[in-house]
Amino acid sequence: MAKHVGKASVTLDSDIYIIGSASVAGTKEGEGPLGHKIDVVGEDDWFGGQTWEEAESNLQKKAAGLALVDAGLKNKDMDFILAGDLLGQSIATTFGMENLDIPLLGVYGACSTCGEALALGSMLIDGGSARQVLCITSSHFASAEKEFRYPLEYGNQRPVSATWTVTGAGGFVLGNVKGKRAKAKITGLTVGKVVDYGLKESMNMGACMAPAAADTLCSHFNDMGTKPSDYDRIITGDLGLVGQKILLDLMKDKGYDIENQHMDCGIEIFHNEEQGTGSGGSGCGCASVVLSSYILEEMMQGNWKKILFLPTGALLSKTSFQEGKSVPAISHLLVLESIR
Q1: What sign has the CA pseudo-torsion 25, 30, 33, 34?
Q2: Using one digit for the tens of pLDDT, what is the confidence trace for 152-186?
Q3: Residue by residue, what is the 3-state secondary structure of the chain?
Q4: CATH topology for the 186-337 domain
Q5: Domain segments of the chain: what residues?
Q6: pLDDT value at position 167?
Q7: CA separation for the pair 127, 222 (Å, rounded)
Q8: Residues of the chain with pLDDT under 70
Q9: How far apart are the C-alpha atoms of 249 and 126, rounded to whole Å?
Q10: pTM over 0.90
């Protein structure tokens, strides 16, 4: 059984393996530095849908199907789906997962949802409540812009601090049997808490999320008695260039230098200057696409033995934002270890 450690961390009694994964992404992501590693890049960003929201649902369906194929399993082999997206009432997930005939647990942590889904899935399996689960998260640039900022037709100018919502979905099959297809194992996790520095800039998500990442990292180091040099990489999900600098400064103020280990999925997924993506990528699909297409590959090749993976989420609500509220954030952390 999992053991609660310190204030916010959990060690898993049994190894939980990522036994299948898949990444699906849009055209802009396909033109980025990881484009050749992504399993499926759409011919356009509609993915056969009639609306942007339907396109995002189709992203989820495709990622789910490919992850199951990668694991050598079928729908009937899954005990639960844990899935989420950025849209109101999680409609991308509702319509994306409705025909799979698998019990669904919807999760929401904004752009940290991938970390939350994998953490909850790991605990379900370790606790004996499931054998195998499917974790899916997605985002779509056009659906997110329409939901949280401006309709695309408005043509508003974006400041350089803004991140670009990734059009993509990542799917992961978790199980407690290693088999021949396992890519890495999840050995522990740290659950983040809501952190609010009072920032109100919807076009600077990195600044809003960096304090949450710093808080979760410090909790992990304190709970587990570890330090940055114990890990090959410390990988945040969606901070971008602006948020990365803030995180490094915050961590130094707290006595931790993570500059040598740190990388950010939002920086890795785009050629930011050439592609005009501002500070980098974000969205529920950002961390999940990079995890499946890049991070797990590096671990399978033995380049990274032990990493921290912590997607970061800005808990932006269009209602609270219009009422003058700040943008709180949260970050959930996973310890991933190579099995090679």
Answers
A1: positive
A2: 655 566 666 678 899 999 999 999 998 889 999 99
A3: CCEEECCCEEEEEEEEEEEEEEEEECHHHHCCCCHHHCCEECCCCCCCCCCHHHHHHHHHHHHHHHHHHHHCCCHHHCCEEEEECCCHHHHHHHHHHCCCCCCEEECCECECHHHHHHHHHHHHHHCCCCCEEEEEEEECHHHHHHHHCCCHHHCCCCCCCCEEECCEEEEEEEECCCCCCCCEEEEEEECCCCECCCCCCCCCHHHHHHHHHHHHHHHHHHHHCCCHHHCCEEEECCCHHHHHHHHHHHHHHCCCCCCCCEEEHHHHCCCHHHHCCCCEEECHHHHHHHHHHHHHHHHHCCCCCEEEEECEEECCCHHHHHCCCCCCEEECEEEEECCC
A4: Peroxisomal Thiolase; Chain A, domain 1 (3.40.47)
A5: 16-175, 186-337
A6: 97
A7: 24
A8: 1-2, 147-161
A9: 36
A10: yes
On the question of a common fold for 16-175 and 186-337, the answer reads yes
CATH architecture of 16-175: 3-Layer(aba) Sandwich (3.40)
Nearest to 64 by CA among 17, 36, 101, 27: 101
pLDDT of residue 158: 67
- Residue 276 is predicted with a pLDDT of 84
